[in-house]
Amino acid sequence: MELIKRTQVLIVGLGPAGMTLSHLLNIFKVDNIIVDQSTQFSQVPRAHYISNRSMEIFRFCNNLDQEIYKYQQPLEFWRRITYLTHMNNNNTFGILGTKDEFGDYDVINGNYIDLDSQSRVANYDQSKLNGLLLSHLKNCMHTQIMLGTKWKGYEFISRNGSEKIISKLERIDPFFEFNIESDFVVGADGTKSQVRKAINKSFIGEKSLQKLLNINFISKDLANVCLELKCDVFDGYNERKMVPTTSMLYFILNPSLIGVMVLHNVKEGNFVIHVPLIDSKHNELDLKLFKQNFPELISQVCKKDINLNIKSIEMWNMSAQILESFIDDKTNRIVLIGDSAHRLPPSGGFGMNLGIQDSLNLAWRLARALKCTDKEYVKKMMNEYSMERVQHAKYACSNSVQNFYRSQFIPKTIGLNWEILNKVNNFIYMAEKYIPVKIVKDLRAIDNIYKFGIFRLSKLLKSPHKIERLRKHIQGCIHSREHSLSINFKGLDLAYAYNIGREDTKVSLIPPKSPFVYSPNTLVGMRIPHEYVYLRNLNKIFRISTTDIPIVFSNREPKSIILLFDKKR
């Protein structure tokens, strides 16, 4: 097997984290090769919420943020989260409540005004984001892309004061094997990462919070229902009025179907619904039969016939796990980012954003390490990357789990308590070790608890008085951050700081006072507050954000920049 390639950084995995890292390395003129065993991206929408900080990073990638704003759905179609029993305007109690995530912002020409960042949050699904990142990456002179190429393993070489990684790769079509020599290898190859397995890293944390069935389907009929659906609310003058409810997320609480439905694209009618499963029953589910019955279930929720086309249906295990270290302890030259280093519940939308922010933290360190001959300093930088990002991942994971439980608060009010179901399921699992399986199955505890919840919900829907009272209760929950799902976590996204103390102390994270609230601060180790500054170049004046400064001056590397903020900051 011969060496046919040489590069400074080999990136394994063509996802958002890996491609963002490749973009950033181009800014620092670092040669890199990015490989992936796939030849095309999955078209199933997955992660879709892009935070302020991630959009700021995309701004560094040749103004990729502006293209995302151009192609994403208008804010009006994804600004809300809605809880409902039916998707039908003729049903008096169909809408239990709607939460406008951008109700506190001024909106001009369809865009909300964000005073905390020059880059607004976005809603753009990962399948499309991948294509956009790749199209930009093809024009980057320091990046070489190799699709249909599988990373198989590595060998660490240390001789004459030089340290290299020899990676073994396999071209799928036409088949041949070859090696790539690099100074660093970055594993960005997802939850089933081959790079992680090769360096013997294991996840710790909650292996299974919930089992889910994910269905991606296309329905113009359902998209029209979402556009037409209204909710009656009382305005400031205590007058009832009808308002739109087109939402990013729909919590469907119906006896026929319970799940969280994501409207990815209203024009295309592209939806994904996550249906929770009971652990003891997920292996017994007949996917073929469910696929056959699913259109009827959606039609029952809408109380009208809905045409739809199922694109994919799959089981999914939701976990909350993080590695203790994101680097290989033996070489300090194999690094993990994104889902290869952390698995988070989707509640809150932290997972993809965490990976994108891993890339920024790592990119400048790699650029500096490649110019450094001091092995100990390189080791120190890589260890600091790991310590910083592990701490942020733990904080994000903790909040993601809390958000998952917040999302269950409203279903609990109608008797659908998945926590109890899983506890009983775990008890039965333990009981099976000591009690004959037939006796355990005859108990049918899980089925009875679930059916009782559905029965209670069905009775509620037949009682206008009870459901109106429930609706008022849910309205109160919706406006409580602790009792409902939210997507605005500015504190978690922008307000944390790395606490870098003495040389002998480990890096720790200084969390914000609230994960929801951002308070601008100039604390050392924290993202600099956003303010616009103006630069003159010949006869032109340019406006940039203070958060752009590290990238704007990356080639010239100024020794110091002095910024003065007023008392508001």
From TrEMBL:
Gene3D superfamilies: D-Amino Acid Oxidase, subunit A, domain 2, FAD/NAD(P)-binding domain. One of its GO terms (molecular function) is FAD binding. GO terms for cellular component: mitochondrion. GO terms for biological process: ubiquinone biosynthetic process. Keywords: FAD, Flavoprotein. The keyword Flavoprotein applies. Residues 6-398 form the FAD-binding domain. This is Phenol 2-monooxygenase like FAD dependent oxidoreductase. It comes from Cryptosporidium canis.
